[in-house]
Inverse folding.
């Protein structure tokens, strides 16, 4: 186990940082001061999924699925069977009376699906020779069925038996699936969201029917999430954030997030080119039911569900695109990026002598149905009442490649995965020090003192 004193990094985009902090200086609000490097993969690690309070599974381009103990960092199981990269992974928990068991479902570019027992490492079921690769998975545990999405939408039972399927009409295939009320499913396909309804007949046979096609996005949908029981949200490559009613599938709010260049830029007046796609693309969305956190290019954007307004933003939160985010509370959040860092943020009030707001401009937004016309008037962040900023409180630097995602195990730590083929287990240094002291005193007591 390594112990680091973590601070900021110098010479990085407009985020204010300081060198590694010395004893006696004010420390950042970052408890993750110990790390443990977990090795076992041989290629990019893209996925992390939590199995229970103490275990997670990792998967990536080497086709391996590894099961880890997040308390000790021990590799518990190595699941081998796929010959190409893993494209999706999820858990499947089935209950039998008083007992329940969690399995893993994986999809791969080798056009196969597998069901694994993470306790033993055995592959319980497998389906091969699919027509195409599966890009996403969705489990409906209350019905003991699960969906796979790719060139077609398939419904499977717990025994991996195909119940029904629907061919989609998009060249890109289904890239994301979420569950909606009344046995409905939302599937993202290129610029559209298709709503399906699952019907269970009296003889327990299943069928799936197309209900509606939502075609309000102007560009490819990059993120699709449930917000709460009555809402879901989608984000596009063009920076469009749409809040939908989960019952009748109507638009409740529409935001167009468009970072603008600083007005202090010498060439701002003659700049004619549109923003780079990476500057406005929504790569990831996360929510706690009250706020939506959007990863927009290399920036972060916090949107309030209640007020349908922006509450905080940071145009340049990382040096490269943000890949994954998480809301820790109503005021704290976390992000990871292609730049190899994981950063912790706090929503704070803007000081009276704040840095110029121009680097944080976002452009046009409207509520209701999106305006298809071009050239809408822009609005500045400084015109929005009660706007706040995101201040850096911790910078976790350990990976040498892009951090793909992370999973929080609360007091047991944080797990990150990266293109450098590694996982890192981050621990609360103060808590670990206390635990070691307690273990030492217990050992001394057992041995009758020194």
């Amino acid at each position: 186990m390594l112990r680091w004193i973590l601070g900021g990094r110098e010479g990085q985009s407009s985020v204010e940082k300081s060198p590694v902090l010395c004893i006696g200086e004010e420390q950042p609000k970052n408890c993750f001061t110990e790390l443990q490097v977990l090795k076992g993969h041989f290629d990019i690690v893209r996925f992390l999924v939590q199995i229970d309070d103490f275990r997670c599974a990792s998967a990536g381009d080497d086709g391996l699925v590894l099961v880890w103990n997040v308390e000790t960092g021990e590799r518990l199981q190595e699941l081998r069977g796929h010959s190409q990269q893993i494209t999706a992974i999820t858990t499947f928990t089935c209950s039998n009376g008083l007992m329940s068991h969690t399995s893993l479902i994986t999809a791969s570019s080798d056009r196969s699906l597998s069901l694994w027992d993470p306790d033993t490492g055995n592959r319980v079921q497998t389906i091969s020779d699919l027509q195409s690769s599966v890009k996403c998975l969705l489990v409906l545990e209350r019905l003991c069925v699960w969906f796979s999405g790719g060139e077609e939408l398939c419904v499977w039972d717990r025994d991996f038996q195909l119940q029904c399927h629907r061919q989609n009409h998009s060249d890109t295939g289904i890239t994301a699936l979420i569950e909606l009320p009344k046995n409905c499913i939302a599937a993202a396909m290129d610029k559209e969201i298709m709503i399906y309804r699952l019907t269970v007949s009296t003889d327990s046979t299943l069928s799936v029917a197309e209900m509606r096609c939502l075609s309000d996005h102007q560009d490819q949908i990059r993120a699709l999430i449930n917000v709460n029981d009555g809402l879901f949200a989608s984000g596009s490559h063009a920076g469009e954030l749409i809040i939908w009613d989960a019952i009748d599938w109507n638009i409740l709010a529409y935001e167009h997030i468009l970072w603008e260049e600083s007005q202090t830029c010498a060439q701002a007046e003659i700049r004619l080119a549109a923003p780079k796609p990476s500057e406005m693309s929504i790569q990831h969305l996360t929510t706690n039911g009250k706020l939506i956190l959007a990863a927009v290019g290399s920036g972060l954007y916090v949107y309030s569900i209640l007020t349908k307004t922006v509450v905080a933003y940071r145009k340049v939160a990382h040096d490269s695109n943000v890949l994954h985010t998480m809301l820790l509370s109503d005021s704290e959040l976390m992000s990871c990026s292609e730049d190899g860092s994981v950063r912790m943020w706090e929503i704070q009030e803007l000081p009276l002598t704040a840095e110029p707001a121009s680097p944080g401009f976002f452009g046009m937004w409207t509520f209701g149905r999106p305006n298809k016309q071009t050239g809408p008037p822009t609005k500045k962040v400084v015109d929005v009442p009660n706007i706040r900023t995101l201040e850096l409180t911790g910078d976790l630097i350990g990976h040498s490649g892009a951090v793909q995602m992370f999973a929080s195990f609360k007091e047991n730590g944080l797990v990150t995965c990266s293109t450098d083929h590694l996982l890192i287990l981050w621990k609360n240094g103060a808590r670990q020090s206390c635990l070691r002291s307690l273990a030492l005193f217990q050992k001394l007591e057992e041995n009758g003192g020194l």
